[in-house]
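Record type: monomer structure entry
Structure origin: computed from sequence
Chain ID: A
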Amino acid sequence: MTNSINEISTDAELMFLIGTNTTEAHPVIGYKMRQAARNGCKLVVCDPRHIDLVDEADYWLRQNPGTDIPLLNGLMHIIIKEGLEDKKFIEERTENYEELKAIVENYPPEKVSEITGISVDDLYAVARLYATTDKAMLFYTLGITEHICGTRNVMSCANLAMLTGHLGRAGVGVCPIRGQNNVQGACDQGALPNVYSGYQAVTNPDVKEKFEKAWGRPMPDKVGLKIPEMFEAAHEGTVKSMYILGENPVLTDPDSNHIRGALEKLEFLVVQELFLTETAEYADVILPAASFAECDGTFTNTERRIQRVRKAIEPIPGKANWESICEMFNYMGYPVNYDSPEDIWDEMASLTPSMAGTNYERLDKKGLQWPCPTLDHPGTQFMHAGKFTRGLGLFQPSDHIPPGEMPDEEYPFLLSTGRILHHYNVTTPYSPGIMSIWDREWAEVNPVDAEKLGVVTGDKIKVASRRGEVETAIKVTDRVLPGVIWMSFHYSETPTNAITSPHLDPITGTGEYKVCAVKLAKV
């Protein structure tokens, strides 16, 4: 997030939500949004599904799935046509504006209405409201990124914020809410194939030299594989072994039958886990993992705030996860001598300019938001004040990119997936308490489609795609559009990702979980 969570209730005058079911996927932030809306903050919700926050919204833009770029381009078209853009911000702080202007010129409201299903009047009303509100925060999550055009969707969100000057101060910003606990922290620490900690590029020779000196070993200067590329390489036989810690890709990755096939072809698989998950069943060796309650360390939340985590109990396996990893280092011939997670943190901070001012003494008192470059720096509440990291903000416009797979005569329904509050952001078939509250998949089907299929709430249907099929109980509801079925992916008995799309964003490798073609049949 460019900005901070508390600004929702202290500074923002408008919340623009697109592709985020915040009250279920991020309930603490969702509560703050609900509270702010009830205290007078304007709320715009862009979502094909009737999520709970629609009931609090001033405007609900119910776009057809996979049409976020035309929607955002259409809003920018209106803003420019009516002279509502922030001319000073554009001139002083951005570049490539003329290209943006040329592309959004091709998205008049009438055309956008036809593509998205949103009325022309609502397009005008929301464009004017967002552009003329002094402090507007834009929020998105996986409903924007989990598309074949996810990266272009994100750029379009940034384009809209820059066009209106909604960056670089309190109460504005582009705020991606991270998909799971400590995803932000994992990325910050270099758990990506192209960077070291603090997003320092592996292809930068100066960075490479710095880490080689610190670690006493030669480091690669080529970008590694993304997760989908790893599994593809396993199919091809060029990746022969994997070590999986804290992930269950058989249940959570798209086209999961393809994942199963890749795991079967591996020569050696190690899974470090709390439970015998669907992925762990394929393992040659299972190492016991320690939960968050058994570990010291840090989590970094979605607003870039580094927070201390303190173990409540001693690790049941006898070792914390970092200790297991260190022992593997030693057995592989690279001796490490860390005494605690604090030692590891201090080494990381010494090599990472954006976190050089953080240490456990400071974090013990209060969480710090990076960038925090020096020990007397207070942390950064909001980013891009005065200038962007790259200097000028770059407009990166895009034309509409249709989903990789759309309904057709053979597979006439569109499947979209997401999360439910009761299972929060994890798969939890191992918790009797949670399963007692919401113990099975309840796919959402529109009443129009239910009548054609001859089904009612509680009936079972078979949902099939070109990749497989699953059975699920259904709930008949107008929360979804006719022709659309919505499912979560939390249940091993209904492994929804066995049927989701194999199409990926070509830049990030993120799966297109939000759109694929299926057919339905009553069981």
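Annotation 1: The chain is about 30% helix and 20% strand.
Annotation 2: The radius of gyration is 24 Å.
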